[in-house]
Amino acid sequence: MATASDSGLAGGDGGRRRPLLQAVRIAGLRNRLALALLGLTIVAATIQGLCFWALEYWIERDSLITLLSRELDYMIETNAAPSAEPPGVGSLRQRYYRTDQPTPLSPAIAALEPGWHGDVMIAGLHHLVLVRELEGQSGRAYLAYDSRRLQVRGKRQIVSFLFGLAVVLVIALWGARRLAQQALQPLAGLVGQIRVLDPEQRAPRLVAADDPDLAVITEALNTYMARFDAVVERERVFSSAASHELRTPLTVIRGAVELLVAGVPDPSRPLARISRAVAQAQADLDALLALSRLREPPTSRVLDLDTLLPEWAELDDTTTTRLVWRLSPTRLIASPGSVHVIFSNLLRNAARAAGPDGEVTIELEHQRLRVIDNGPGVPDHELPLVFEPHFRGRDGGTGIGLYVARTLARRHGWELKLGNRPEGGAVAELQL
User: What pTM was estimated for this model as a whole?
Assistant: First the structure.
């Protein structure tokens, strides 16, 4: 069985491991981003290099074709003497042949049709050959160009391309890691802010970095934290309100039990108070549970408020405040627990403000409930704060009753207001 100290140690180890795991995750994300940038750079460099290589190849090929065509035209026009040596012999890079003159013509050349031939093997060597018909004569002219230098140049271009690609790879690797680190630095800062958040202090919020995309994430997290704080606050209010609202029926039950123990002549009246208090406690619990679970609406039924309100007016036995009733017949479909919680809180606050010898008037007409006291009223600077949780005025109290009453009223779509009367005292008005 694990002790509290054991669990604390385990929690401490988990707390120490958590920043390490977060750092590892960020490092993994940084590496993936760096690899993505590196891959894109290599692909872009490869495509660009191949395009340049193809462009240079075609430019050089077209230039060579144009040059050889002019050279062949000149030789035909000037009736130049054909080359004496066959292809592959000697140091000449180009040779000129004619079929109408005795020349050492290779069979590979003699079999060619008029036009341009890019790769012809003559004497074991690669040649570019241009063949043209002689105008006005029976025969053909041939110009063969040794392409070994072109092949060597092509190999050098391939080597240069691979070398350049390797240099680009090294530079891209270094740059991608730096760019990935700089790009994820705001995210690492946000993770650091989240790591040091204290769940016991709900006021702090995350600070957005100078990054529009990260600011959206920060705003979403802050919105979630605000909603979470609201849930926590609602649960705290529920626990406080439960103890606050159940105090009155428990007091009634305790007083009725004391009467039974004392042996009153007619026990039916204390028993009726106990039964009524138990039923009301159950209804109050249902209303408070509905307060803590926003998605679960409270159970509603038809209520005759002019009959129920006097039954719900349970005050402490030591309270001598006089109650004045001005009730018109009013029927309402609502949760009895919610209406009871709202009314009992308004009545207790009014009785506390009026004092032992004061007076509280309860008016009900036209779907409007008003609870009026003849006390000193609420200071003007406190009026905006009376419905805030845990706010306590000069009359004391728990600071939770009016907050719970307004929250329940809003859930039903009602409006609850509190103000001062010109003639003195305060008035709480619930518009149903």
Answer: 0.44
